[in-house]
Specification:
2 helices; 720 residues; mainly beta; seven-stranded parallel beta sheet
Length: 720
């Protein structure tokens, strides 16, 4: 289709062909590809300027009943350098160093107080303090002197001069102690503190509390050794302790850690009771001596357990019919008492009994019978625990007077019971090939010398000696039962036929890893380093889908996966429009084309949109759900693009091409139909399937279905 021409496919009253030189459009006052307007971001800086502080020119009344008038306005003068000596807020060591006559604690230590002739700075309050004559002088007192001091009661947090400040002793709730929180009406708090609402019963106060972490000790708190109560608790109990400010800062809680109660005279679990569970202390006990007599008492040991202090001499059980060691047993240790025993004769037969010796320390046998001798008769004649001892080898296997060396007989007692004989009277054994020493000579299969040597079976097709001669059914056989070795491309004679790699006609090349399209059935080639891919020319090269519907470059589909964008009705518009993550709309994919990717592959389905072609792009349909490309006449391969009303032109379009070179392939383009009475300036709207201006547009295998145009307005009645 040549430049400066547009073709309209419609089904109105007439078919219109118009030659145009150019069309221009202004969209919201902006031009350029895909620009929908612009937004200018301006960074603005806002300054919150508070109204200027107005000082209270009147001095506070000298009312000692209500001296703690608070002035929250910050009237601190601009910093022009350190204050003059003796001036307000200048460092001091005593009242005589200050023009006001008062050297008080300030945020950084002792400082000269400022009188209340003017308003006090933020964090200070006007308070009356008696001078040397007893008259009150109103000066600015720093309200947060006790902030974060360890405390036990609210009184620990007061300044001790000029009335109460309202500071409170606040428990941290974690057992780590309580610390002063100073009042912060007006939002004034020391550095590192935040004004927080703290509940005290039904009352809620705003107090200065640490922004993060816990309180540090001030120099004042260290000097005074301020302290607070703390505790350590666990599942075993709660132990109380103290934390105090010292040269190293706030100490850790010195409370003991509740522990399981042991016997040590200490309340280990801090429950107010000592050594509970060890009520046996003081009771009689038997120590670690050998007797069972309770000669000691229970006491606490060094390991926290009970120990018995029985250090009396152990009592020894004697053979005397008494329980000497208090274990409720009589003559234990002499368990053989009254058992049968053998005396000093030559046999070991128990012809007597064991009885207590005269001194009670042992047993003696009262056997005085005659000795007995051992015979070969399976009896223990001399009562020594052994039967037929002296007759070695009895009942063991033995070899008789035959030709083999196999012990086929058994040693038994002779008829006179005074010696032994062998019962082997069988035939001699011969050696067979069976992995057994048949003739019992210490050698196995010695009559078959080739056993174990390599061999090649005729059952496989190779010539490799992969087996060994082994015994089977008392004869030698070759056990080469493995699969036949085949020739491979590796510089080795794999099948042992004397030929290697390409010299061996038995060498069979494997298929190439990629078997798609033109690569189907192709095989690898044998090279110097082994098997190498043997792909045809054009493998993974550039490919444009055509009417052959064939994968020429073996990349898995008819086309060029690496240089194309993908669209599917089930996709989602994204930045890449890849095969694995296709986009949903054709126009979106057109907007993502580049010099490297101008082809767009569209999966089968219906796309309701006006395709806007404003650059070089090539659309290809015919792809099914598995991205297999076939003619759209086949089921599952049809791509239908249905147009709609394109607002900027005020007409119904399916494809709108402007100043671009493009192609449409394997598509069904369906015109959209306006309403029957839809008109513009009295003329019925038309339906254009393809509307091209200054465009070079190529259509291949495209079906065009015209839409219906709308009827125009009725004309005036004619003359009669």
């Amino acid at each position: 289709m040549s430049s400066h021409t547009f073709v309209a496919f419609a089904r109105p009253r007439t078919v219109i062909v118009v030659a145009l030189l150019a069309l221009f459009a202004l969209v919201a006052g902006c031009g350029g590809d895909e620009q929908q307007g612009s937004t200018v971001d301006v960074d603005a800086t806002f300054m919150d300027v508070a109204p200027a502080d107005t000082a209270d020119a009147s001095a506070p009344p000298l009312d000692t009943a209500t001296p703690d008038t608070r002035v929250d306005e910050d009237t601190t003068a601009a910093d022009t350098g350190p204050p003059c000596e003796g001036c307000a807020f200048a460092p001091c060591e005593g009242n005589g160093d200050c023009d006001s006559g008062f050297c008080l604690d300030g945020p950084a230590g002792l400082e000269c107080a400022k009188t209340c002739s003017e308003s006090c700075p933020s964090g200070y309050a006007c308070r009356g303090i008696a001078d040397a004559s007893g008259d009150p002088t109103f000066v600015c007192v720093y309200e947060h002197i006790t902030y974060c001091d360890p405390c036990r009661i609210d009184a620990d947090c007061e300044l001790g001069l000029g009335g109460k400040t309202g500071a409170r002793c606040v428990d941290d709730g974690l057992g780590q102690g309580a610390f002063c929180g100073t009042r912060c009406e007006g939002g004034s708090c020391p550095e590192g503190a935040t004004c927080e609402a703290v509940a005290f019963g039904d009352e809620t106060l705003e107090l200065c509390r640490p922004t993060a972490g816990e309180c540090d000790c001030s120099a004042r708190a260290v000097e005074r050794g301020a302290s607070t109560d703390c505790s350590v608790d666990n599942a075993l109990g709660v132990c109380d302790g103290v934390r105090a400010c010292g040269p190293e800062g706030l100490s850790a809680c010195d409370a003991a850690t509740p522990a399981e109660e042991i016997c040590d005279g200490v309340d280990n679990d801090c429950d107010g009771v000592t050594d509970e569970g060890f009520e046996q202390v003081g009771a009689p006990c038997d120590g670690d001596d050998e007797d069972h007599c309770a000669d000691g008492t229970w006491a606490c040991g060094e390991d926290g357990g009970l120990v018995c202090d029985d250090d009396a001499e152990s009592r020894v059980e004697l053979c005397n019919g008494l329980d000497d060691d208090c274990d409720t047993e009589v003559d234990e240790g002499f368990e053989d008492k009254l058992k049968p025993c053998d005396g000093d004769d030559d046999d070991l037969c128990p012809d007597g009994q064991l009885v207590c010796s005269l001194d009670g320390t042992g047993l003696v046998c009262n056997d005085d019978g005659a000795s007995q001798i051992e015979l070969c008769n399976s009896l223990d004649d001399d009562c020594d625990g052994d039967t037929d001892e002296g007759y070695d080898g009895l009942f063991e296997a033995c070899d008789g007077a035959d030709a083999d060396q196999c012990p086929d007989g058994v040693v038994v007692c002779s008829p006179d019971r005074l010696s032994t004989v062998c019962t082997d009277d069988g035939f001699a054994r011969v050696e067979l090939c069976n992995d057994v020493d048949d003739d019992c000579d210490g050698d196995t299969d010695e009559d078959f010398p080739t056993k174990g040597q390599a061999c090649d079976s005729t059952a496989d097709s190779d010539l490799c000696a992969d087996g060994h001669w082994v015994c089977a059914d008392n004869a030698l056989v070759c056990d080469d039962a493995g699969p036949s070795l085949v020739e491979d491309c590796n510089g080795v004679d794999d099948d042992c036929d004397g030929k290697t790699d390409l010299d061996d006609p038995d060498l069979v090349a494997p298929l190439n890893p990629v078997q798609s399209g033109a690569c189907a059935g192709t095989r690898q080639t044998c090279g110097g380093s082994g098997w190498e891919p043997g792909y045809p020319a054009g493998y993974l090269g550039a490919e444009t889908p055509d009417g052959a519907y064939f994968d020429d470059n073996c990349d898995g589909l008819d086309g060029d996966v690496a240089h194309a964008l993908f669209v599917a009705t089930g996709g989602s518009d994204n930045a890449s429009c890849t095969l694995s993550s296709p986009c949903q709309h054709i126009n979106w994919a057109i907007g993502k084309t580049s010099a490297a990717k101008r082809q767009i592959y569209v999966q089968a389905g219906t796309y309701d949109e006006v395709v806007l072609v404003d650059r070089e792009v090539h659309l290809f349909g015919g792809f099914d759900g598995d991205w297999v490309r076939r003619p759209y006449s086949e089921a599952g391969h049809k791509v239908v693009i249905r147009g709609a009303k394109y607002a900027p032109d005020g007409q119904y379009l399916t494809v709108r091409a402007r100043s671009a070179t493009a192609s449409l392939n394997d598509l069904v383009l369906e015109g959209a139909s306006p309403g029957a009475s839809e008109r513009s300036a009295g003329r019925g709207l038309s339906s254009y399937v393809i509307h091209a201006v200054s465009a070079n547009l190529t259509l291949r295998r495209v079906e065009v279905l015209a839409g219906d145009g709308a009827s125009g307005a009725a004309g005036a009645a004619g003359q009669g």
